[in-house]
Design brief:
mainly beta; 2 helices; Bridge-like lipid transfer protein family member 1 N-terminal domain-containing protein; single chain; BLTP1_N; BLTP1; 131 residues; 6-stranded antiparallel beta sheet
């Protein structure tokens, strides 16, 4: 069964219409956790300036490369108690100061994130496998 896919032409996608996306966030919080864990990982920041774009892939099998570059100010990574956790506390919780246990704190953080968008793997023929 052969599946027909969309054209891999870079001009046929939204990325040609909007090549760069810039996002400015005045204050934000990312939380990773749930009520099955005693602690929740929280990342707080005051200002974030992020730029997203794409460029050609590093491998011929990939479609394109995602790029996110940015700068965050007044970043704090903390472990805070999960409010709805009902399980047993096996370990002593970390020492809390204010909102939670501070894992990392910095005035300025630079972010560079690169990720290739995988493409379809070409189908191998029996001749090339035996070859």
């Amino acid at each position: 069964v052969k599946v027909k896919t969309e054209s891999q032409d870079p001009t046929s996608s939204w990325r040609s219409l909007i090549p760069v996306i810039k996002v400015n966030v005045s204050t934000g919080r990312l939380a990773f956790g749930n009520h099955y864990q005693p602690q929740t990982l929280c990342i707080n920041f005051d200002d974030a300036f992020l730029t997203y774009t794409t460029k050609p892939p590093s491998s011929h099998l990939d479609q394109f490369m995602h790029i996110v570059k940015g700068k965050l100010e007044n970043v704090r990574v903390m472990l805070v108690p999960s409010p709805r956790y009902v399980g047993l506390q096996n370990d002593e919780p970390p020492r809390l100061m204010g909102e939670g246990f501070v894992v990392m704190q910095s005035n300025d953080v630079d972010i560079y994130y690169y990720m290739d968008e995988p493409g379809l793997v070409p189908e191998e023929t029996e001749e090339s496998v035996e070859g």
